[in-house]
Amino acid sequence: MANSKRELFLKRRLRVRNKLKKRNVGGLRLSVHRSNKNISVQLIDDVQGVTLASASSTEKDLGVVGTNNVEAAAKVGAAIAERAKKAGVEECYFDRGGFLFHGKVKALADAAREGGLKF
Questions:
Q1: 3, CA 20 to 30 Å: which among 27, 32, 63, 112?
Q2: Residue 10: per-residue pLDDT
Q3: Domains in the chain, please, with CATH?
Q4: What family does the Swiss-Prot or TrEMBL record give for this protein (predicted)?
Q5: How many CA within 13 A on the CB side of residue 42?
Q6: 89 — phi, psi (to 5°)?
Q7: Residue 87 contacts residue 24 (beta carbons within 8 Å)
Q8: Dihedrals phi, psi of 41, to nearest 5 degrees
Q9: Is the pLDDT at 25 greater than 80, yes or no?
Q10: pLDDT at 34 over 70
Q11: Contact 105/80 with Cβ under 8 angstroms?
Q12: C-alpha–C-alpha distance, residues 55 and 28, integer Å
């Protein structure tokens, strides 16, 4: 029986998250969510259950509102790297969720790496 796109996405998300939990004991997680129009990212401390920093393409100060492209994702990645540095974070694990690592997700990750985050 064929699985729907949503079921495949959920399976992929759980697989990625479970692998991260095995490796990431006490570390921070950079979680990405991508919709058809926007992309957002959070730096999460799973031990304390708090978000240390976040960035999204819906923020007006980034200047990418209304754009749906790779450049917008790169600006969000640079913003999260800058905010993570302010929070005192230099290293984290990249949680792509169920999204494939290409296009906007890859652009965000590359920009975050260029901004100084290590993952």
A1: 32
A2: 93
A3: 5-114 (3.30.420.100)
A4: Belongs to the universal ribosomal protein uL18 family.
A5: 11
A6: -110, 130
A7: no
A8: -145, 145
A9: no
A10: yes
A11: no
A12: 16
Nearest to 117 by CA among 90, 79, 87: 90
Q: Are 74 and 110 in contact (CB under 8 A)?
A: yes
- pLDDT tens per residue, range 67-102: 779 999 999 999 999 999 999 999 999 999 999 999
The tokens for 84 are 């993570």
Query: Mean pLDDT across the chain, nearest whole number?
Result: 91
Structure tokens, 13: 């998300």
Task: Provide the greatest CA pair distance for the chain.
Answer: 49
What pLDDT, on the 0 to 100 scale, is given for residue 1?
54
Identity (one letter) of the amino acid at 6?
R
User: What tokens were used for 21?
Assistant: 């939990």
Closest CA to 34 of 68, 79, 5, 63: 68
Residue with tokens 């965000």: 108
Q: How far apart are CA 102 and CA 92, in angstroms?
A: 19
Report the alpha-carbon distance of residue 47 to residue 93 in Å, rounded.
14
- Quote the Cα angle for 112-75-73, to 5°: 85
